[in-house]
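fwd from M.: "can u put these together and see what the complex looks like"

so here's what she sent:
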Amino acid sequence: MQLNNDKMDQILLNFLARYVILSEEEQNVILELAIFKSFRKGTILLKEGQLSKDAYFVLQGCIRCYYIVDTEEKTTAFYTESETFNPPGALNHTPSEYYVDCLEDSILIVASSETDEELFVKYPVLEKLCRLVSEDLHSKSQIAFDNFKISTPEQRYLNLLEIRPDLAQRIPQYHLASYLGITPQSLSRMRKRLVRKAS
Amino acid sequence: MQLNNDKMDQILLNFLARYVILSEEEQNVILELAIFKSFRKGTILLKEGQLSKDAYFVLQGCIRCYYIVDTEEKTTAFYTESETFNPPGALNHTPSEYYVDCLEDSILIVASSETDEELFVKYPVLEKLCRLVSEDLHSKSQIAFDNFKISTPEQRYLNLLEIRPDLAQRIPQYHLASYLGITPQSLSRMRKRLVRKAS
DNA sequence: TAAACTCGTTACCTTAAGTTAAGAAACGAT
DNA sequence: ATCGTTTCTTAACTTAAGGTAACGAGTTTA
């Protein structure tokens, strides 16, 4: 699918409209600030040790967050269309402990979190918008954490198939396995077990 | 330790001062709204199925968040002094899927999240405060999630001892085990293994 | 075309967690 | 002081995940 500029603007505004009603002027202010960038599959957006002050909104494609522990990648999150990724730790100006890369060719909105205080004063609704988005993301993230904790790897896999069936299609198994907290071999075995159970 | 009202006010203001500078008037507005409540150990603050619109700030004591899955309690979080708990899902007015109880006699500030829009208009700094707190909590929650995912139960336990040694002291082992994602028996075995390794 | 690489699967063995059951220790209430 | 509840530990057995290695299918590269 090809995205032209108008479509991309519209995707962003649709997302924001879930939270607040924006006047035309406010919409334009945001669109002025939004920087659209394209990245090739495999591009590394953030490395361990770097300071990240950018937040990402995915217009198209998929980005992944992962740690490297003893040479091994541990994937903790995927973000796809109309999802936002606000790198944790960015607020405190602490160096990143994780990596972010593009699993597919992606079009992202890169928002510098050098939030302009004046802008919030001039357009208080923007501060409200940020509050509401943050509260929503926090709430969702906590629920996801809870579900992860109270589930076995098998339940997590079945849950993933149910909640985000697209991921199971577009993401390599070994990344999924890592995301589920197991090895690719274990995932492979698990899938065999599940087929056996089902029949 | 006994807490009088002035001390309690001060604890809350100290917490808020981490995020914004408040004028005396703004401080008083917040203290007016803050409702201090005492609860006996064992009190259930929220049950599955209930609508929760209250957020909690712990002045003294400890509260716990848990799910009940097949008659079994699965603990997902503890909150102690100067920590806030904003029940996820409250925003969407969806019934709670989890329980919250007091593990100790506790003094909490109960904040109704029926946030007064007028108040934010009159005191924009309060909206900023909420945004900053929410962003901070989200960031911390994501980092905690990441750490949980990339760790084994043993690493989680060792990490807990390092980061929150107080919890290991004041919380029963079987709750800790549940929090770590294992059974009390496994935690008991693990502790024995660790002692053996250490020597 | 051949070699290299990526990705998924299978197998064998080891390690640790779950399950069930039982008993010991600590704590509270009468 | 005693009874009962709560909490922690231990043990024997079962289940599933980790580590290592090898194989094969599909792609990319030379």
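replying to her w this: Residues 172-174, 184-185, 187-189, 191-192 of chain A lie near DNA strand C (CB under 10 Å from a C1').
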